[in-house]
Amino acid sequence: DQSNVTSYAATAVAIVTLEAFAGMWINAFIVSMICIAWVKKETLNSNEKILLLLGCSRFGYLCIGWVYYFLSVIYPKYLQVHAIFPLVESAQSFCNCTNFWVSTCLCVFYCIKIANFRNSFFIYLKVRIERIVPWLLLGSLLSSLVVGILVYDVTDKVLCKNISLTSQGIIWKASIRIDEHFVTSFFIIGFVFATSFTAVTISALLLLFSLWRHKRNMQTNSMKDLSMDAHIKAMKSILSFLVMYNIHLVCFTLTMVYALKGQNNVMFLIYVFLYAFPGVHSLILIFSNPKLEKTMLRILAFVKCKVCTKQ
């Protein structure tokens, strides 16, 4: 039985490691390409600013998440050290919340930039969107920092309480399971997810209505317009995020349920889906951006040639 447990743990860590490192590479590619463009142009447009922060937050989330999963499976006692676990939990919550807030900003940006409505407030947002984006990103960072601090405070208090219950004040009881004490942390992050989900859904519906109305006007006037392609590309990006967001939200809810039950097999499958989201969605964003797509295809072709040459 012990050998089977060890084999399962090694397989789980290997799969999650492969998935996390692939996602880190994809997001590192986005960050590096935008930084190169920043150096060349000495400025960034709003879309590039959002993608830069999104890539950084997802890279950090995957990196910290992998460290957390690796320690929880291979060296679980290291997470029981009072100073380490609250920091890891807080940093992961910060990166995760930043990821979702900035993804929401990207969806809202696409909606305002591409959708066409005659509403005066919408027109005002469309004109001012370039100035609004930096403030949205700053607000995303600050709100994520608040969430990270709250999670750290909750985690730290729980650990202090558990330590005070032990006989020596240092040794942890085996019966104390860390996961079952973090309903508050799940609630805080769940509130962020729900708010983000609402904003993304509204953006998708508005863009879909704008696309439908634009298509109807084109059929009436027998005209062709390039904005149709912009509508469709934005819809693909938002809908892909919305679908993956729903999967991520379900996995997040299941994480709380099965963590309390201690079912490691189910938790492993949930982690596979959770760590797939930042990489897969970033890959979709790359192939929806002509410049990033062209560079990515060049790199893949170069790697393929090198592999074929060695063989």
Automatic annotation (TrEMBL):
Pfam families associated with the record: TAS2R (PF05296)
Gene3D superfamilies: Rhodopsin 7-helix transmembrane proteins (1.20.1070.10)
Cited InterPro entries: TAS2R
GO molecular function, one term: bitter taste receptor activity
Keyword line: G-protein coupled receptor, Membrane, Receptor, Sensory transduction, Taste, Transducer, Transmembrane, Transmembrane helix
TM annotation in the entry: 12-39, 51-71, 91-112, 132-152, 182-209, 238-260, 266-288
This protein's GO CC annotations: membrane
Subcellular location: Membrane
Coiled-coil intervals: none
Bilayer topology: Multi-pass membrane protein
Annotated family: Belongs to the G-protein coupled receptor T2R family.
Protein name: Taste receptor type 2
Protein species of origin: Sclerurus mexicanus (tawny-throated leaftosser)
